């Protein structure tokens, strides 16, 4: 699916309070030698989330060096899990995750390990007031906390511990 169509489908699902305020962008640096780019989420024109290939690669190399040994496939999976939880990903992987989220129920989106998909679940119009009131954003990624505050009528945190 082309990026423009995917963006339209994702943003069309946003709740009224997020529609027009939250936008998803992707760039490709066509004059760069490798044409890599960046993935961005903006709120009122201000960047609240970004992920780029080189940011992902640098974080992956750092985690690999921290292990200090030859990596097994289990180590590789653990590194990918840690990166995913931190919200660091290659923008191609984020596109794939967004495409998959189009067919996911809201419960699966909110339980996903990737902060971007959880944030899209919170922004989704199918996520109502009751479901929002049950969310605990205390230990969440900054993106998830920001969109949770946006969806709350008074701007407070989703659930006060």
Describe the protein's architecture and organization.
The protein is an alpha+beta fold and 161 residues long. It contains eight helices and three strands, in the order H-E-E-E-H-H-H-H-H-H-H. It has helices at residues 3-12, 53-67, 73-86, 91-101, 106-111, 115-123, 129-134, 142-151; strands at residues 22-28, 37-43, 46-52. It has a three-stranded antiparallel β-sheet. Helix 2 (53-67) packs across helix 3 (73-86). The radius of gyration is 17 Å and the shape is globular.
Distance between the termini: 41 Å
| Poorly predicted regions | none
* Average of per-residue pLDDT values: 86
**Radius of gyration using CA atoms only:** 17 Å
Write a concise synopsis of the structure shown.
With 161 residues, the protein is an alpha+beta fold. It has helices at residues 3-12, 53-67, 73-86, 91-101, 106-111, 115-123, 129-134, 142-151; strands at residues 22-28, 37-43, 46-52.
Please write out the topology.
Blueprint: H1 3-12, E1 22-28, E2 37-43, E3 46-52, H2 53-67, H3 73-86, H4 91-101, H5 106-111, H6 115-123, H7 129-134, H8 142-151
Antiparallel strand pairs: 1-2, 2-3
């Amino acid at each position: 699916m082309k990026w423009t169509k995917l963006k339209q489908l994702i943003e069309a699902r946003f709740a009224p309070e997020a529609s027009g305020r939250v936008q998803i962008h992707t760039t490709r640096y066509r004059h760069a030698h490798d044409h890599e780019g960046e993935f961005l989420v903006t709120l009122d024109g201000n960047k609240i989330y970004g992920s780029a290939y080189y940011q992902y690669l640098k974080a992956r190399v750092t985690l690999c060096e921290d292990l200090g040994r030859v990596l097994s496939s289990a180590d590789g999976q653990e590194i990918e899990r840690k990166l995913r939880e931190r919200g660091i990903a290659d923008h191609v992987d984020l596109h794939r995750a967004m495409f998959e989220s189009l067919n996911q129920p809201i419960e699966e989106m909110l339980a996903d390990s990737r902060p971007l998909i959880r944030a899209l679940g919170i922004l989704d119009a199918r996520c109502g007031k009751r479901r929002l009131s049950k969310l605990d954003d205390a230990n969440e990624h900054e993106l998830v906390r920001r969109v949770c505050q946006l969806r709350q009528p008074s701007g407070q945190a989703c659930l006060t511990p």
